[in-house]
Every structure is written in C-alpha cells, then in structure tokens.
Design brief:
By secondary structure, this protein is α/β, with parallel strands linked by helices. The protein folds into two domains: 129 residues, Enolase-like, domain 1 (2-Layer Sandwich), CATH 3.30.390; 219 residues, Alpha-Beta Barrel (TIM Barrel). Helix content is 34%, strand content 19%. The strands form four sheets. Strands 7-8-9-10-11-12-13 form a seven-stranded parallel β-sheet. Strands 5-4-1-15 form a four-stranded antiparallel β-sheet. Helix 5 packs parallel to helix 6. The protein is globular, with a radius of gyration of 20 Å. The structure holds magnesium ion (MG). The site of magnesium ion has 6 residues, from loops.
Length: 368
C-alpha cells in the first residue's frame, strides 16, 4: 500500500458560545483548523485534523501548521501508510521539531490504515475498554456571576465534571472558584486549571485559601519543578498538562512524583501514534490520564474519543467533545455524545463520514 495523494483544507470553526477566555486576557473566537485527506493507491482515504487554540495556548499557530504541512507532505507520497513508526521518524528527519505540524498527517495515516483493515481505530490503539468516556465542560474565565451562570448551564445540561479556569490574580480566582463551587450540586467533580499561569508563591496562596472544598489542581505553574514544589504539600490530586510535551518530560514527572495524572494532547505530542505510546506508558506508570487536544471538530474529537476509549477506565479521567463547541460541521456524523458521556461512531477507522463538500477548496492538493 502506498500514499497516492494528500489534500489539506483550512476550516475556520467559530465557537458556539462566542469567546473562549483564559486568565491574563488570552482569548480566541474560533478554531483555525487544518484538515488532511490522505488517499492510498487502493483508493481508501483517511482523515486528520489539527487546530491550535489561538497562538497563545501551546507553541503552535495555525499559519505555521499550514506552512508545515505544505513543506512536509511531498516526503510522504509513495510511503506505506501502515508503517506508522517509519513515517513518524521520516517526518522528524525531514522536518526537525515543530511537532504541531505533524498530527493531522499522522492521524490521517492511522485512519487510513484502520479503514483499510476495516476495524475501528480504537482496536488498533489497543482495544476498546468501555462503551463511553465521561465528559467535562470548561468554565472559562470571567466575572463570578458569569462563571456561575456558565457552570449552571453545564450542570442543567447534565454535565457532572467542570474544569474551572484560574491562573489569574489570586484573590479574584479564589472568589470566582469559591462562588462556582458553592453554586454547583454536591458531587460535581471540579478541576481548577491555572494553565501554568501562577508563580509558586501565587499557587501556594490559592491552595491555602481553597482548602475547604474538593477539587483537582491542574498545571498551577509553568515548570515541572515549580509544580512539584506545590504538590509536595498539596492535600489534593494534581494533574499536569502543559508540562507534558515529550516522553522525557513524562518520565521526569514520574521520577519526581510531580503529578497524579497527565493530560495528553495529540497535537502537542506530534500525533495519535506518539500519544498512544505515551498513554500506554503513563498507564503502566500508574498515572491517571486524560487524552484530548487543543481543538478541532468531528475528526479531531473522534481521534480523542478512540484514544480515550482504549484507555483503561480505572486510569481514565475524562474527555472533551470539541465538535460541540463550534458552529460548523465537517462530517455527516460525529462521536455520539450525551450530556455527560461520549462514545465513538460505528464504522472503520475514525468512524466518521467526512463531507469534503463542507471543507471548501483545499490549499494543498498533491498527487503521486
Ligand atoms: Mg489543562
């Protein structure tokens, strides 16, 4: 089997709820997504997607993804898409670093291979471990009133897990989080995600002022050492997200005992293949795991769902349904979601039926 052609599309995906806000004025109004269609000589097409969250969230930006895909794609024509590790090494050889330009291509390879083998991607990622994964929703940064209203909307919809954005001024964060925590039903699972926004001093102040209620602390500070300093005296679970960009960092976190759980993001790690490797190792090391990404619609969410549902339930934290965030559709179906859980669509590969007619003209169309 050989890769015969690759097309790439840019799809702007405005948010249903307007602006997504994190601390310190970091905002986005849409995902700026790159979608890749990879077709084999046998006529099977696999799909991949990568969408950064603005240019502020991770070391990635949408124009960079597009430029990178254009540069790297000619090297893949003629390669065997089933040789996923070889393709990963080839991409790293011809284009050093920049892991965020590779995930859509790797995801398309994984989808193509699973479709050609007529199995769902979850099977190739280790096998399905449960029917659905629990979903969480994000309470973005805002006034206490706005955040309470935001949380109430999620709860009214049936969601039982909330990630509250913190990481700004500590007294304000304490006020906002305390207000949200007091407003939600007993048993609601809360995460406080600072997105690496605090100094150690600030994180310690926040933790000290919020001892009264239960939550999991997510990525309080920027470095592993600073987060570890917080965790040493923390009486709550802690997960790291932004700190996990490679195997080396994951091993450092394990060695130092710097976290109880990890958030693995497909695009930050360079693709589905690499994320699967780290996910399996994270489970073996005893971490709790969330597999997600920085953004996207049906294609990217399906990949997240297949990775989540091949993670053992006892090690799985939760998942997120990004396709419900955006106003545009890219496929005729999507991962099935209830208010609190997400499954995977039936069918081979990602299981979704992408609609090329909804994607506009490709900005790249390369054939053998
Ligand atoms: Mg996070």
């Amino acid at each position: 089997m050989q890769i015969r052609s690759i097309k790439a599309y840019r799809v702007l995906q405005p948010f249903v709820s307007g602006t997504y806000a994190m601390s310190k004025g970091r905002e986005a109004a849409a995902f700026d997504s790159v979608i890749v269609a990879m077709t084999s000589d046998s006529g099977v097409t696999g799909w991949g997607e990568m969408a950064p969250l603005g240019s502020f969230y991770s070391a990635a930006f949408a124009a960079g993804v597009r430029a990178g895909v254009v540069e790297i794609t000619p090297h893949l024509i003629g390669e065997d898409p089933r040789a996923l590790t070889r393709i990963g090494r080839l991409m790293d050889t011809v284009f050093k670093g920049h892991p965020y330009i590779k995930p859509a291509l790797d995801m398309a390879c994984c989808d193509l291979v699973a479709r050609a083998a007529e199995v769902p991607m979850v099977t190739m990622l280790g096998g399905r471990t449960s029917e659905t994964a629990e979903l969480y929703e994000v309470v973005t940064h805002g006034t206490p009133e706005a955040m309470i209203a935001n949380a109430a909307k999620s709860i009214a919809g049936g969601c039982k897990r909330l990630q509250i954005k913190v990481g700004g001024d500590v007294p304000g964060d304490v006020e906002r989080v305390s207000a949200v925590a007091a407003s939600v039903p007993k048993g609601t699972v809360l995460f406080c995600d600072a997105n690496a926004g605090w100094t150690v001093y600030q994180a310690r102040q926040f933790v000290d002022a919020t001892r009264a209620f239960d939550y999991t602390l997510e990525q309080p500070c920027a470095t592993i050492d600073d987060c570890f300093s917080i965790r040493r005296t923390l009486d709550k679970p802690m997960v790291l997200d932004e700190s996990v960009t490679s195997l080396q960092e994951m091993l450092e976190i394990h060695q130092k005992g710097a976290a109880d759980g990890l958030t693995l993001k497909i695009s930050r790690l360079g693709g589905v293949s690499r994320t699967r490797q780290l996910r399996d190792l994270a489970v073996d090391l005893g971490f709790m795991v969330t597999v997600e990404d920085t953004g996207g619609a049906e294609i990217d969410t399906a990949a997240m769902a297949h990775l989540s549902l091949s993670t053992p339930p006892e090690n799985r934290l939760h998942a997120i349904a990004f396709h419900t965030w955006v106003t545009v559709r890219t496929a005729a179906n999507a991962p099935p979601v209830t208010a609190s859980h997400m499954g995977i669509p039936d069918g081979p590969g990602l299981g979704i039926d992408v609609r090329p007619d909804l994607l506009g003209m490709p900005f790249l169309d390369l054939s053998a």
